[in-house]
């Protein structure tokens, strides 16, 4: 693995940092999260038009730039530095890869160029225990279905007018504002429930969306209720699904893509998502460390800068080592995810990055003194990002436990103890 950035990667980071520095300062971010959408549409348009950020990891034939997860992770490291509120995670990291992997050519041609151009935002609505379960980050998703019981989650039924969806999803990233919803629903009744993905227009009849109060305001979430909503199945309805599977009846006797295929697509998406989130957390941790170092170099106590005290130096040195180690892990996870050289590195990298961010933010709050504990200061925003991501994508011990399970470490330990 060559850890040096290419000229193109360096230019992506430089251009994005310059734009965000000019357009996404603390005041701008606070104003953006207070809007109904939760982000600045003008900034999103600038990121799309000037840098092509929404289509960075999409193929050129669909209007994208044609880069890989590595470049997307580097870009998200920069957005993480300023905690930029944007639809990037929900649209480009979670939803677009599923449309690319499972959609028909007609669906890709219709949706992906609009996503790459920044004119269409999207959200992944996944009912069930949590998003981390569906992505197989904190456990296997072989038994995952998009419902919490006989009447829970989202159900889909096929009738004369097509597929109709009903139910609700409690926490959907950008679900209150996205123009397109990719909804996981279960079909076939309770006894033969299978998970399917359906495309739903955000303003379709029967869709009721409400923005929810979230711990991390820079990651707005919405409650999505579907009341007999028309949905378009993602993927070819005439396919036989995975080999050896039954499939369920679609229009004109066709068959929908099997639930096993959807779960496999979710599981394949888990590592790239974790790698991108890890890079984003590293950027946030690096920035809060920079701000803390600058502050303790100016704040004086007993006639000398606080940063000159040995105890403070030791504390910040530990944070620095943690951030650099997390950056190495995030870069490696992104490189592995981009090259398909293996799996299971995303979860541990994300766990390490979130721990580094939590540590950096906690030290920043303490070393800023009384001002660090106030709502007006930005230090608490970084701490909330770490805590919020742990709630959404799994705590560190579960992320590592899943990686150990995938690597067969628990089975090896059992054989050694036998």
From TrEMBL:
One of its GO terms (molecular function) is flavin adenine dinucleotide binding. Its cofactor is FAD. Residues 229-256 are annotated as: Disordered. The keyword Transcription regulation does not apply. SUPFAM superfamilies: Acyl-CoA dehydrogenase C-terminal domain-like (SSF47203), Acyl-CoA dehydrogenase NM domain-like (SSF56645). InterPro entries: Acyl-CoA_Oxase/DH_mid-dom_sf (IPR046373), AcylCo_DH-like_C (IPR036250), AcylCo_DH/oxidase_C (IPR009075), AcylCoA_DH/ox_N (IPR013786), AcylCoA_DH/ox_N_sf (IPR037069), AcylCoA_DH/oxidase_NM_dom_sf (IPR009100). Residues 276-406 form the Acyl-CoA dehydrogenase/oxidase C-terminal domain. The keyword Flavoprotein applies. Residues 6-118 form the Acyl-CoA dehydrogenase/oxidase N-terminal domain. Gene3D superfamilies: Acyl-CoA dehydrogenase/oxidase, N-terminal domain (1.10.540.10), Butyryl-CoA Dehydrogenase, subunit A, domain 2 (2.40.110.10), Butyryl-CoA Dehydrogenase, subunit A, domain 3 (1.20.140.10). Keywords: FAD, Flavoprotein, Oxidoreductase. Belongs to the acyl-CoA dehydrogenase family. This is Acyl-CoA dehydrogenase. It comes from Streptomyces malaysiense.
């Amino acid at each position: 693995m060559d850890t040096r950035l290419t000229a193109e990667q360096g230019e992506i980071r430089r251009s994005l940092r310059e734009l965000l520095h000019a357009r996404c300062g603390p005041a701008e971010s606070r104003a953006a999260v207070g809007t109904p959408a939760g982000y600045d549409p003008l900034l999103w348009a600038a990121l799309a038009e000037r840098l092509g950020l929404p289509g960075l990891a999409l193929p050129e034939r669909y209007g994208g730039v044609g880069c890989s997860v590595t470049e997307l992770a580097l870009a998200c490291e920069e957005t993480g530095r300023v905690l930029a509120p944007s639809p990037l995670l929900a649209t480009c990291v979670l939803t677009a890869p599923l449309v690319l992997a499972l959609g028909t050519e007609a669906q890709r041609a219709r949706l992906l160029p609009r996503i790459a151009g920044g004119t269409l935002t999207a959200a992944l609505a996944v009912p069930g225990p949590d998003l981390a379960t569906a992505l197989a980050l904190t456990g296997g998703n072989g038994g995952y279905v998009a419902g919490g019981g006989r009447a829970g989650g989202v159900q889909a039924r096929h009738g004369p007018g097509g597929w109709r969806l009903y139910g609700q999803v409690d926490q959907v990233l950008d679900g209150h504002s996205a123009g397109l919803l990719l909804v996981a629903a279960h079909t076939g009744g309770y006894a033969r429930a299978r998970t399917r993905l359906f495309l739903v227009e955000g303003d379709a009849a029967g869709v009721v969306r409400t923005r929810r109060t979230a711990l991390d305001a820079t990651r707005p979430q919405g409650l999505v209720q579907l009341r007999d909503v028309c949905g378009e199945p993602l993927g070819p309805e005439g396919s036989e699904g995975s080999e050896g599977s039954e499939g369920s009846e679609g229009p004109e006797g066709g068959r929908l893509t099997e639930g096993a295929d959807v779960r496999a697509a979710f599981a394949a998406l888990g590592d790239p998502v974790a790698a991108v989130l890890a890079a984003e957390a590293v950027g946030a941790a690096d920035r809060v460390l920079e701000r803390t170092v600058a502050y303790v170099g100016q704040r004086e106590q007993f006639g000398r800068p606080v940063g000159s005290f040995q105890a403070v130096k030791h504390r910040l040195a530990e944070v620095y080592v943690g951030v650099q180690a997390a950056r190495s892990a995030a870069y490696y996870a992104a490189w592995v995810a981009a090259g398909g050289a293996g799996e299971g590195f995303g979860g541990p990298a994300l766990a390490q990055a979130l721990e580094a961010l939590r540590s950096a933010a906690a030290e920043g709050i303490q070393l800023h003194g009384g001002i660090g504990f106030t709502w007006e200061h930005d230090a608490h925003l970084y701490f909330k990002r770490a805590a919020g991501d742990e709630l959404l994508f799994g705590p560190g011990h579960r992320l590592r436990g899943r990686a150990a399970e995938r690597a067969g470490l628990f089975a090896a330990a059992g054989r050694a103890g036998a």
